[in-house]
User: Fold these one by one.
Assistant:
Number 1:
Amino acid sequence: MTNLDWSWIDLVQLLAAAAVGLLIGYQRELNFKPAGITTMTIVTVTSTLLMQLSIRLSALGAGPITADPTRLAAAVITGIGFLGAGVIIQTGRQVHGITTASTIWLMTGIGLAIGAGYYHPAAAAVLIVWAVLAADPYTERVIAARRERLRRRHGGKVEE
């Protein structure tokens, strides 16, 4: 068996990545946000797969210099920034897609963590983000009401 051989742990990691991608993507779909189930699942599974590959390639130790598993992970993070930038839209003074871009970035990190075997931090991140995303509509309403009160108090002259 070489270091590139596939194992059941790899399958479990990929299935775990798909499950958390589906979970967060489902939450995004429920709120009619871009980058839902399909995008979040693909991003998470891909980053898990790339981390698995990075670890395997570094374990080969071919040649005089051993490969660094963090290099591929760093490249994944850089590349995902371009995808995130593509979902951010500016209309006048309004910017949309920041949460979607940051969620894509987060799911990449979760996928990398799963691929590296850091299951507890990945699960904690999923739970935290699920709670934050679930609370977002309520938080937005509270903030909008507060802004409206400030506008009325200051005669509509509050800058955003």
Note: The chain has a mean pLDDT of 85.
Number 2:
Amino acid sequence: MKHAVEYLDRLLKQLSTANGVGYGGNAAQVVIEALKVEGIDASVGHDGSVHACLEGKGKKGLMLACHLDEIGYIVSRIDDAGRIFISEIGGADVRILPGQEVTVLGRKEHRGYIAFKPPHLLSSEERARVVPLEELFIDVGCKPNVVKQDIRIGDYVTFSSKYKKIGNNLRTAKSLDNRASVACGILIMKEMAKVEHSFSVHFVATSQEEYTGLGARIHAFKLPVDYAVIIDVSHGEHPDLKEHEYFPLDAGPTIVRGATVPGRLFDLLVETAQSLEIPYQVQPIVGRTGTDADDIAFSRQGIPSCVVGIPLRYMHTPVEVVSLKDIERAARLITRFAGRLEDHALRDTK
């Protein structure tokens, strides 16, 4: 068990400290290398998603989808003073931005800080309002000619927070939405590679979930899959949220129940969790799930899909928090669920 936790801890650190806004960064390569260590070949598609497949003995296919991208920004303007202005990709609360350390992924990477006027120089009107994004800028500490040489309009910007341990099982970093789920998917593939299975298992670390859904749309249409499990994050506890709006950390993964998830898949996930004595939390969602399931479930003639969530605090900030235990539990749940789904699907076709 200790070895498994250490493995997950290392993997999550590698994934969360990688960069993956839009098409930019090295996150896809980190995923490929992590799978390669487990003897699993993977490749990056033209849309930026990572795909790997464990071939099965039968004709049916299962998709494991966990989005690879993270929230961030894109360079929209550079003024004559070398100040870098940005537009958002995916959406963070603008109130947290002043003073944040970021990395600009230009021809050369540059660390910098999101800046605004010092409080001493603010007017009374400026003090009373939230500073809009268009008035904030990034200072990378270089002369204007260097900035314009190394950084172009359209380059991506990501937060630069560090991966840290807080408490026994909790970890904090940027981009745990959704690298926590990517780590979960890699754990599942690692275990499923050890055994034969009738389904072909397609792991897809999808691109652009935060703003276009491109990776999920392309691969749901392209791959020969009959079912899908979408792994994402759900909101952890917070003082001002109502009880049905949050899910405590260290209390097990969430299982979505709602219009997008067929009842038989929800029931099978719950039965599987109970049989493994894995704690779980039911997440009711009336309409759209806000995950890749919204594109996958309605692709082609319809792909029966279910959603497993990893509770996460402070979503879309540089200090997201998850529990290693919840990631490991979600991986065990989905691994066993895949085997039981094969049995059910095979019985249904007889």
Note: The CA atoms of residues 77 and 85 lie 5 Å apart.
